[in-house]
Structures are given as structure tokens and as C-alpha cells.
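#struct-pred
JK: can someone run the complex with (3R)-3-hydroxy-L-norvaline? inputs below
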Amino acid sequence: MNFSQGLYEVQEKKRWMNMEKLLVTGAGGQLGTELTEALVDLYGGESVIATDINPDVESLFERCAFQPLDVMDSKALNKIIKSKKVTQVYHLAAILSATGEKKPLLAWQLNMDSLLHILEIAKANKLNKIYWPSSIAVFGPNSPKKNTPQYCVKEPQTVYGISKQAGERWCEYYFNKYGVDVRSLRYPGLIGYQSLPGGGTTDYAVEIYHKALKKEPFTCFLKADTFLPMMYMPDAIRATIELMEAPREKISIRSSYNLAGLSISPDQVYQSILPHFPEFKIDYKPDFRQEIANGWPQSIDDRYAQEDWGWVPAFDLEKMTAEMLTHLPHFLKKTQGSES
Ligand code: VAH
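RT: done, C-alpha cells with the ligand placed:
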């Protein structure tokens, strides 16, 4: 490709991107805050509308529009998508595993009804693309524990996992029956410094860095040797963008792709922090989330993501820990007005 053609390709892509209008639901969540920023970087602030049930998160979005939105209200969803001429929806709003076990019927209703609202609106309005996150929570105690494959027995033990398994079936149905271009990733536990997790079984892996920086001891709600699939947030964001930008014909999985990054335990995270904070102390008091974690894989086989759209993670545990301990203090200072 010569320079002028290359320039044309970039300008053509920018024009295509500028014609897109993206709606993000659950934008104030752990994934939503960072994914919305990445979409603004890619498409421009005027092409992204951040929404969340919590109006107080509006201050997080300085570069794009924000609107309070209840994803259970199909009329409100339809109205904003039509009036703003939305072409893509990143539907992130959900109740996660731990909170879901405290409010099972609400978790099922919110996670499922909101997805069906979005899929129906996408069909009726011929939206260009939909993104919907699934999770390794779709696997259960009878799934293979190590290098859990894309296809295997899945008997999720949480309402969250059940809703994600059912959601995957609906996504594949709407693609096969109506041609809705909905794409999905089975995220591992996500670890980032730009947002706090909310109601997850993997939240320990974020909380531990906050405690280390505050020079406080950390009580972990999972056992020291609880290995789980995890991923540094920048890798998860890049995987999402790479999946959504892949040519339609490259996508062979229309339920949800296995996605692998790290397979780590609380003890390994603690050991990776010690060189930075030698005095840091941890103790372990497993709670109800231990049983949830026991039903999940320890590591994931993501060969389809590698083969279909070239997925390769960039962060190992040591590199993630160094990044978290470098960036978290500045983020906390910016958002809480004081050093951590
Ligand atoms: C949870 N963070 O803990 C989410 C995630 C794999 C775990 O789905 O519920």
C-alpha cells in the first residue's frame, strides 16, 4: 500500500467511524468507564453517548454526552436509539455474580430483559453492530477446570452465569434468524485502576492494590490458592475493540468467544506486590464468594479468538502489578482529591 493510498484508507476509515453513533449502557461500571473512554478515543466524543441508571456518574464523562437511562425501560431505549440515530450499542449494564446471588430474580430480569430489548431494537432498526459481554461465569463445576475449551458442558451455578449462558443463546439466535451483528466475549475477571469493581467475585484482585498503596493489611475473601482467569483492563478493552472491528466474515462464534489473559491466585497477586511493598500483609477469610469461584475455571483456552481475529494478550502478572501500582495513586488523587 503506497502512502497516498494509506492516507486514503485512514481518511475513509475515519469517515466511516464518524458516521457511526455509539450508545453505551452501564457506562458508569468497572468496564463501562474505561470502554467508553476508548470508544471516544476511536470515534470522537460527538459519536458516543454514555448512559447509566445512576445519574451521579455523569461527571465521569467529560468528552462525550451522558444521559441517565434505565435499560429495563424498552420505550426509553427505543426513543434514545431512534432520536440520536444510534448505529451501534455496547450493552454493558448487568448485575454481576456476587450481587446477583443476593438479588437473584432482579439479576435475571435485568440481565435478560435488557438484552432482549436491545436485540429486538437492533433487529427492528437494522443497527450496524451490538456488543454484549458474557463471562467465564457461564462455566460450572463440571466444566474442565484447566484450559477450559470454547465448547464443553456448562452448568453455571450463579444467576449471573445462568443469565450469561441464556444471553449467549439469544445472541446466536438473533444473528442466525435475523442477521443482527451481535458480538460477545466471555471476559475473565477484570483488573483496572480507573474504576472500582462492583459486586463481583473477582473484585479482590482490584481491592488488594488499593490496600497495598494505603499501606494497610488486606483481608482476602478467597483462599490463597484460588486460581481464576483474570485480565488487565487495557487487554480487555483492546480485545473488545479488535473483536468489534474484525470483518464480519471472520467471526465464527456468535454466542460468545472464550478470552484468555492470566490465570492467577490471590497469593500470586500478593507475591507480585511484595517487591514494591515489602511490609504489605495479607490474611484470608473466604466468604460466600469462595463457593462461586470454586465453580469457575482456573484457565481458559481461547484458540478461536486467536485464530478468528488474532487475539494475543499483552500483560503478564508482573507487568500488570507494576502498571497498577504506578497509575492507581494518580487516579485516586484525581478522583478523590487526595493521595492514596
Ligand atoms: C464477577 N467480575 O466477578 C465478574 C466476572 C469472571 C467474573 O464476570 O462477577
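RT: quick notes.
Residues 116 and 170 are 8 Å apart (CA to CA).
The chain has two domains: 10-190+232-258, 191-229+261-298+307-334.
JK: thanks, will look after standup
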